[in-house]
Amino acid sequence: MFNFPKILKNRKQESENWEQDIVAENLLEQNDTEEHLDELRVDEGKVTIQFTGASPANGDLLVGFFISNGLKKNIKCINASLVLIDSDRRVLARQTFDGATIGEIVGGSAKACVARFLSNNIYVKDIPADCQVCFDAS
């Protein structure tokens, strides 16, 4: 299970409406994610996250990503703090989500998600195509 007590210990949850945090999941059937399936790897023994794209949504930002679980057992997020960074590792956006919105990820598989970053957690006007989404460890 993911639990980020040091990260979230003194942070107020940034989103009050958890149901709207993850706007879609399990998108593996959709055509627009098929190109990412070829590139997607599940590294044995590692949990990784891979950015697939971002688009504006009424002042907010929808960020697509895959979470890959290379462990032999299923994992479940308790809380997840995500950060969007550019190629120079500058923080573009940061958002904390209730782990239940991501749900359980089966061992040896990947799960597609699209998360809503609220406008007050987006620090730049334009999001470059070559950015990354990461678990926030700061």
Automatic annotation (TrEMBL):
This is SLAP domain-containing protein. It comes from the Bacteria.
